[in-house]
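Our preliminary data section would be incomplete without showing what the modeling component actually yields. Below, a chain of 504 amino acids is followed by its predicted structure, encoded as tokens that our downstream tools consume directly.
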Amino acid sequence: MTDVRWRRLDPRMLVVGPLKNLMQLLPFLLVVLLTGRSGDLNQVWFAISGAAVVVLAGVLRWRTTRYRITDERVELHTGWLRRERRSVPRDRIRTVDLTASPLHRVFGLSVVQVGSATGGASTLDRSARMDLDAVSKTEAERLRRELLDRTSVAAPPVHRPAAEIARLDWSWLRFAPLTFSSLAGAGAVAGAGFNLLIEAGVDPRDIGVVDDTARRVATAPLWVGVGLAGAALLVVAGVGSLLLFAERWSGYRLTREPDGSLRVRHGLFTTRSLSVSHERLRGAQMSEPLLLRAGRGAQTRALSTGLRDGGSGAIAPPAPRVEAHRLAAAALQADPAEATRAALVPHPRAALHRRLTRAVLPTVALVAAVWVVDERTGLASLLLLPAAVWLAVDRYRGLGHALTARHLVTRLGGLRRRTVALQRDGVIGWTFRQSVVQRRAGLVTAEAVTAAGRGGYVVLDVAVSDAVALADATTPDLLRPFLAGARHAGHGERAVVTAQEHRS
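Predicted structure:
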């Protein structure tokens, strides 16, 4: 281990690092210069001093950062005043993510992000990630192969072509305005641009056309003003979501690498490459937010140890539902009918009653409170009742589960429906939860515990006997001793409690 030499980041980071920091500081420096008095040299010297500090910090960072890769560990040493030492066992590495911003691409560099699992079932915090910012593109590719495939350390890489699973279809662009993240991102970008103009002393509202339009809207009836503002907001958000989709997913390709890992590449200005080891893959998830589901679209994510829920596990952009099913099955190397398209078992009617109760009762209370305050508003709020009933019925229709030869499949959700195909050998425990209302209805919520994604995936409001049978069929060696003891005490709640005591 002591014979392995330490490596430094690419020397080009002496230029890229300070430039990157200066670009982040540029809006602030511009505000300082623009808001200062004409001829005031203090403002100029302040800006120059700030830039010099940023450049010096970049040089010190390069000088004090080094890393090495041994047969057992990856080590990273950083810092001058505040030193930091990280060491990750190679058998704990789960993902390798390559990212290159436009500035990195100009200098032929990439950022290598090494994701690992450290203790918790599905936690991937900062301590579980190691960033090498930045190395050459050739070195980044070599590190990706070396860290995901340990055999590549002792043997030269075999140059075999990767098998393409999918590439971008620009007709999928129609799904961009149907995702909340794209709309929120477009709004954030527009808001940041507006604030930057205000800070620079340029008020868009002072522009002649804008000011004239604002005055006309202000003198129009209220419903006209609200309608026009809403339409303008939708147009801006829609156009922004299309642009963000194009930037994020341009050049998208999903491939199966020669070592069996999944690799996702995409990005127009900032390129991204995520590699997920096949040995660490535990399942796939199809997400269908309400608007995307209405447009018959869905997005596929990989469930891998080292990838937390909501992280960078997306292996495809929003796409047609049929394509999302195909990609989930391709990632798991299974037939779609054995994964996310499996025929699901519906849940008991008592689950529908729970959905109705949980949706309608709070809505009735809200309508009653509004009615007391104002009768006209209360009359209009009655429209919330059929909406609550529809949402409850939709959530019940979304419930379902199935057990195939290799996967446990579960589906739930209304506003954001999720279908998960979890590998049966990736289930490491079970948790059973039962509220007082569920106990009276003979229902239970069973959660399959895994070391991937959110750490556990629930089968919501299923009959007690079905939950125990499902858990026993999925992981028979785990529950069989406890179920044998439960049989002497009777089935039902006793079996649930016994299995819960054995959760992982």
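Confidence is low (pLDDT under 50) at residues 119-127, 151-156, 488-504. The longest helix spans residues 222-249. Preliminary results of this kind motivate Aim 1 of the renewal.
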